[in-house]
Amino acid sequence: MIFNPEVIIEKLPELANGLLVTILLWVAGIAGGVVLGFLVATARRFGGFVTNAVLGSIVEVLRGTPFLIQIFLLYYGGPFVGLMLDPIPCGLIGLMVYSAACYSEIFRAGFGAVPAGHVEAAGCLGMTRLQTIRRIQIPEMAVIVLPPAVNLSVILLKESAVLSIITVPELTATVSAIGSQQYAYLEAIFILAVVYWVLVELTDRIGRLAEYRLSRLRFSKA
Amino acid sequence: MTLSAITIQNLVKRFGNATVLQDINLEIPQGKVSCLIGPSGSGKSTLLRCLAFLEESTSGMITINGEALGFFETPSGKRERLPPGQIRAVRAQTGMVFQQFNLWPHMTALGNVSEALKIVRKMPKADADEKAMAQLRKVGLENRAGHYPSQLSGGQQQRVAIARALALEPKIMLFDEATSALDPELTGEVLKVMRDLADEGMTMVVVTHEIGFAATVANQISFLDHGRLLFSGPPAEVFAKPRHPRLDQFLDTYLDRGASMLA
Amino acid sequence: MTFKIFTLLLQAAVSTIGISLVSIAIGFVIAILLSAANLSGKAIYSAPARVFVSFFRGVPLLVQLLLIYTLLPAIGLNVPSIVAAIVGLSLCTAAYQAENLRGGFASVPKGLIEAAEVTGLSPRQTFFRIRVPIALRLTLPALVNEAIMILKSSSLVSVVGIIELTKMAQDLASSTYLPIPIFLSAGLIYLVICSVIALIGRYAERRLARTSI
Fold first, then answer.
1. Which of A103, A141, B247, C5 could be stapled to A110 by a disulfide with Cβ–Cβ 3.0 to 4.6 Å?
2. Of residues A156, A204, B76, the one with CA closest to residue C54
3. Is C190 on the interface with A (CB under 8 A)?
4. How many domains does chain B have?
5. Cα–Cα distance between C32 and C40 in angstroms, integer?
């Protein structure tokens, strides 16, 4: 067995392209997921029984089925209902919807973790519900939801590799293709693994730094 | 005769099947300190939370300085909810202090006090900060303005919470067991702030287990038991012997908490 | 026709469950060993364990599977692809379970361990008879979550050609041109299995609650 990573190094620009697609998909997936997830969590908390039950079921289905199945359904099933999507938009939509379901659960737990008294205090001082959400609940939640949100973001980065299966030209797809062309598949996959590993470790570190910076704003669970 | 700051008429509060307040009638005079005492679960905190409109009563009326709080009764006896803006306006006359302080952990002491001035009263930041600082000075904490709640002792947190409520210049202050979550050596500083406030003539409704405070500061003491207001009156009258057996039983439990002077 | 398809999916689901169960069990054993290495306090054991956990938590499962699938033959191990798949899933879940257990071990009250020591238990006895059982009770909810994650992740072994629920759904979808009902059915089957795991987990938690700290 010869291990020769040089043949991959030659293809570095291509690899960089794949990395860029992965990072863009990842960041857009997080951004869309956070916004959508927050709306879902807010609607479930303040929208009454029916809204909560309907959204809750959708979230449960998305969290209880493999991401790959959801992507297949969207990519192969979409055209049968007039939804013709290219791999990249399909992957992006899939990633956003899946992450929205996961983020919504984190925000829901966040809403629940803000002590009721903090919200009551805002009400006693004359704040409206919107003011209370914006000025009290969101900032307090931020500290609580940060660790699980960072965790989830890391999971999403890794989950995005699945999009290679529907030929999204992201990191995994690009590097496997390079590996096959260059007859150096093992080297390619090895480098691929290392790139992901570094990205994940980096994200983790940044997340922990942010947690540390915010930790003094934490309240005790009295 | 003194004017009533708060009038409570036939107030009933139920949680599901449980009746926590049964037909409460009480007048709280202006500029006086009124203490609500009673065993745990007697409904005194619920009554106070009804006054702050944190709980909505099931039936009955609460009037604050002559204005109905939350609900009004039509001439035909139907109970209707007032519009939110009006409810906020009446609520603005009261300030609330909680047992658990409920300071917002992501804001400094100054931020906690100035927040509502800025976003509810729409005051410019500089004015709000100045006013908030004055309130912090009043509770002796101007040198802690930049501290976050987690960096303050329980007694300091509660004083910030009092400053936060006072900043909006309420006519009535509501205290819900303001010293119960504090270590015994820290209750004094909070009780002192409350005494000073009483001396200034603030109308105060105080739910407390500090019988000593109630006996010395209150103008009116109301004793609740099992959701009923058993009696209400000036301390000398309420604590005079012979006492109601339930009150005697209750005081026994609190003998070592400053009530020994009444034994 | 539709009944036939559903039966095929259910049969494939049995493979999915089998692969997941075996991987979780193997992963659990490895995770306990990793925990022992971590708690040994000796860098020669704990450092490799930490790298292992960091790597398998830091690399997408799909990439791990591709790596193992290519690596095993390259080092002369010509094993069936199902073995490669189970090895991949096991190593991955081992890393996650070890991380969960780390939290559990950290929450075992120090006094209980000291009590074991003063009663004369050896470090090994203390580990297996005191720390592991208590940590397990503390991490049971996380373990149940991990089982659900692995069940869902096992869909990725379809990529290396294993016929399980996802691969079967994919094949049926392309041969029948009925992707929507087929992928929905597959999703439903996953959902039901996940719910059953969650139910078993809740039952186990209740049973263990009596003996929890």
1. A141
2. A204
3. yes
4. 1
5. 12
The helices-and-strands tally (H runs, E runs) of chain B is: 9, 12
**Would B130 be classed as within a structural domain?**
yes
- Number of Cβ within a 10 Å radius of residue C104: 20
List the 15-54 stretch of B: residues with Cβ below 8 A of A.
52-54
Round to whole Å and give the CA distance between A5 and C62: 21
- To test the contact with chain B by mutation, choose from A125, A131, A145, A219 the residue with the greatest count of B C-beta atoms within 10 A, namely A125
* Cα B43 from Cα B26, distance rounded (Å): 14
The alpha-carbon gap from A123 to the nearest alpha carbon of chain C, in Å, equals: 36
Per-residue pLDDT of chain B (263 residues; tens, 9 = 90+): 467 899 999 999 999 889 999 999 999 999 999 999 998 889 999 999 999 998 999 989 999 998 889 888 888 878 888 888 888 889 999 999 999 889 888 889 999 999 989 888 889 999 999 999 999 999 999 999 999 888 899 999 999 999 999 999 999 999 999 998 888 888 989 999 999 999 999 999 999 988 888 888 999 999 999 999 988 989 888 888 778 888 888 888 775 555 555 55
Chain A interface mutation, best of C62, C89, C165, C184, highest count of A Cβ atoms under 10 Å: C62
Indicate the pairing of strand B4-15 with strand B59-64: antiparallel
Which residue range(s) make up the domain with B146? 104-169
Q: Is B113 within a domain?
A: yes
ipTM of the complex: 0.86
DSSP A151-217: HHHHHHHHHGGGGGGGT--SHHHHHHHHHHHTT-HHHHHHHHHHHHHHHHHHHHHHHHHHHHHHGGG
CA distance B110 to chain A (A): 15
Is domain C2-209 given the CATH code 3.40.50.280 in the classification? Answer: no
**Chain C nearest C-alpha distance from A193 (Å):** 6
Q: What are the residues whose beta carbons fall under 8 Å from the beta carbon of A187, sequence distance 6 or more?
A: A3, A4, A5, A7, A8, A179
Contact A222 B181 (CB under 8 A): yes
Q: CA nearest C194 in A: which residue?
A: A64
Residue B50 falls within a domain, yes or no? no
Residues 6 or more apart whose Cβ sits within 8 Å of residue A191: A5, A8, A15, A175
Torsion over CA: C150, C155, C160, C161 (sign): positive
Name beta bridge partners: B95: B173
Class of domain A6-214: mainly alpha
Q: Is the peptide bond before C133 cis (omega within 30 degrees of 0)?
A: no
Name the pTM for this structure.
Answer: 0.80
Q: CA B244, B250, B251 angle in degrees (round to 5)? A: 90
